[in-house]
Structures are given as C-alpha cells and as structure tokens.
Design goal:
Elements: H1 2-28, E1 57-61, E2 66-69, E3 76-80, E4 83-90, E5 99-102, E6 107-110, E7 119-127, E8 133-142, E9 147-149, E10 151-154, E11 159-161, E12 167-171, H2 178-183, E13 185-190, E14 195-200, E15 204-209, E16 218-224, E17 229-231, E18 234-236, E19 239-246, E20 250-255, E21 260-265, E22 268-274, E23 287-290, E24 293-301, E25 312-321, E26 328-332, E27 349-352, H3 363-369, E28 376-380, H4 400-404
C-alpha cells in the first residue's frame, strides 16, 4: 500500500512545484515573460508583435516649428521601412484636414489647400512589417499674405431664386491660377445634380447645371478660398458657406414676330401678354436671359448705353434687368398702341403700364409681381444675334459641352 501512495504523493508534489514555477514566471513580467502555456519555456510565442523598437520611420514636412509655410504643396507625410496607418492634421480650432494615404502606405498628402496664417498640428503613425508602431508629432504655421483677393457673389445667402439663376463670383483681382480657385468652390445640391464652373475672362467664375434647376432644389456653396493662391503672391481670404433655394419653375418666351409673350410655369402657359420689342436697327437680342435686378421705378438714360440723347426717362415702371448692356423687360406708359401690334423700343421688351406704377392690373404690374430674380425670359425670332453668355447671367446660351470644356 505504501508504494502507490508514495508515487501519488510524488506526482502531486511535482504538479505543485510546476504551479509554483508558473506563478513565479507570471510575476516576473517584462519582455522575457513566459507564454502562459504551462510549458515554462522562456520566450514563447504569445501571438503579439515582436518586442523592441519599430523599424518604421515617419517623416513630416515642413519640419517642426516652421513658420510662413506655403498653403499648397508644402505639407507632406511619408514613411520608410513601414506603412502609414494614421495621419491626423488639425487647425487651431481642432478641425481636421482631409487627405489620403497613397503609394501603398508610403505617403500622405492633403486633399485641399491650407488656410493662411493658421497653426496646424500633425500626428502620424506607421507600422513596420512586424506590426510595431512608430509615431511622430509636429506643428507649423502657414504664411500671412501681403496681398489678397475676394469674390463678390450672387445670389445672396438665404435667397429664393428662379430656375435660371447661376452662382456667379466676380473677383477683385485677375486670377492666373483658375483651376486652384475653381476647385476651392464646392457646390452640393439636394436633390443631387452635376454643377460645373466656367470662367469668363480671368475675374468671373459662374456655376450652373446642364439644364435649368429643378423647383425646390437646395444649393449649398462652400467658398474655401482662404489660402488659395489666385495669382503669384496673391491669396484668397474668404471662408464662407452660402445657401439658396430654387423657387417655382417659371420661363417666359417672347416671340418678336407675334409680339406676344407666353408666361409658363412648369411648362404650361399661365398667361399671354402683348409686348413691344426693338424696332428695326435696335433689335432685341435673341436668347435665354436671366432676371438679375427688379425696380418698381428706375431711370433709363440712352447716354449710358450708347444711344446719346435719344431718351432719358426718370420713372420707367416695373423694370427688370436682363443684360449688363442695358436690356430690360419693363413697363411702358408712352407706347400707345404698340403692344401686340408693332415693335417700337430701343431693344428692351415693353409691357403696357401707367406712369407712376400705381395700377396693379396692368400687364407690366402683373408680370413684375409674378417674377423673381433668376427667372428666365427667352427671346426668339428677332433679327439680332443671340446675346453673349457673359452679358448678364446668361451662360445658358452656351451648350454644356462648351460650358465644361
């Protein structure tokens, strides 16, 4: 009996001793700790990354503490002997700057320019082939421009406009880096529609969809021009969000031959009005024209449009601008029986009205009341050519192919 009991006691002691050894190893910690598999082998595989420093090297340009850093092209993050796994760049307000890790993890670049006179922080992490991480942190400050440009825009923030209204920017300095400036204007719409920009000269940039806006469309424009180098040494200073909404769908068609205008909403005629247009030698432009201004009464002087001394009327009623060169659709109280019968104007579209604009029942008053900024007036069958697309907000007279090339 004593033999088996002795052997059992010895087995129990060995197991206890093994447990004590394991307990001792577990308390030891450090990089030489055991795997916890009961084998008591030092350096066993725990399934985690190898210990020791990472072989990956993170590089950030510009160097830490740099001042007067350029807003484009200067910020770059790269990794050698490893791959970037995380890059976070924030401005002084904690807003993150978007960017992409490219080249299989070898580099990161921002997807947009940086703002001027702004401090940025950079945190970048890379992993080597064993999964060990290396991190770098840096900060720098962008340049403060000596020369700047701004853009005035239409329509106004928060406005409701007609289906023909483009978003138009006019800059106070000529732009020689048009792609950079255009790309800094981001437009989102609900419902979504493709919106593209077109330059007229070097100081005007208009945006529009291929066809007129759909009624009810909500348009949001992000002007991220702060820090954009519009021309050598001249930087944008605007960072602003502009919103506007498209109102009901109204397009009016003036037929010079019939001397009538059909007012259409959602493609259906709601009113037909007699008009008078440009007489021979003063023909009205053909084409699609957008209403850009409205005046209950305004002065019209021929001297301002090259018709010296031919007219000067200080109380033209119910006037709405269609071109920058002086084309209006407006009330006319001096036209006699011309409306619907013969063309007698100096190029404008005239509607019967009364002096003083007091009678709300006249054709001109009705049309004025039912029109908004951004509505389209189409003139056809005139002997004149089609209006230039940059004469007013009339880019609709360009094909989509011309607009986008």
């Amino acid at each position: 009996m004593s033999g088996p009991k002795g052997r059992a006691r010895r087995r129990w002691t060995a197991v206890l001793a093994g447990g004590l050894l394991l307990a001792t190893a577990a308390c030891g910690g450090g990089s030489d700790s055991g795997s916890g598999d009961g084998k008591g082998k030092p350096g066993g595989d725990s399934g985690q990354a190898e210990s020791g420093p990472s072989q990956a090297v993170v590089s950030i340009a510009p160097k830490d503490g740099s001042k007067s850093v350029d807003t484009s092209g200067a910020l770059k993050v790269s990794a050698s002997k490893g791959k970037l796994s995380e890059v976070v760049v924030k401005d002084g307000k904690g807003k993150a700057i978007s960017g992409k890790i490219t080249d299989g993890g070898a580099s990161w670049t921002p997807s947009t320019h940086l703002s001027a006179a702004t401090k940025y922080t950079v945190h970048a992490v890379a992993k080597d082939s064993e999964g060990r991480e290396a991190a770098e942190d840096s900060s720098f400050t962008t340049l403060t421009p000596q020369n700047t440009f701004t853009g005035s825009f239409t329509p106004e923030d928060g406005s409701k406009v007609g289906v023909g209204m483009p978003f138009s920017l006019r800059f106070d300095r000529g732009i020689t880096n048009p792609d950079e400036v255009r790309d800094a204007v981001r437009i989102k719409t609900e419902p979504a529609v493709d919106v593209q920009g077109h330059w007229f000269g070097n100081d005007r940039l208009d945006f529009r969809p291929e066809k007129y806006w759909k009624e009810g469309t909500k348009v949001t424009v992000d002007l991220n021009l702060d820090g954009v180098e519009g021309r050598d040494g001249v930087y944008g200073e605007q960072k602003k969000t502009v919103t506007f909404t498209i109102g009901r769908d109204q397009v009016s068609v003036v037929d010079v031959k019939t001397k009538h205008m059909k007012v259409m909403q959602d493609g259906k005629v709601v009113k037909t009005l007699p008009v008078t247009t440009g007489k021979p030698g003063y023909d009205t432009w053909n084409g699609q024209m957008v209403i850009t201004e409205k005046f209950v009464q305004t002065r019209m002087n021929g001297d301002t449009v090259g018709y010296d001394g031919e007219y000067d009327i200080d109380d033209v009623p119910h006037a709405m601008r269609l071109s920058q060169s002086g084309t209006f659709i407006h009330g006319n109280y001096w036209g006699g029986d011309a409306f619907g019968n013969y063309n007698a104007s100096h190029g404008c579209v005239g509607l019967r009205d009364v002096k003083g604009a007091w009678d709300g029942s006249t054709p001109a008053a009705w049309f004025f009341k039912h029109s908004m900024i951004g509505d389209v007036v189409v003139v056809k069958n005139s002997n004149d050519r089609t209006i230039a697309p940059d004469n007013g907000l009339n880019g609709w007279n360009m094909s989509w192919e011309e607009w986008t090339k």
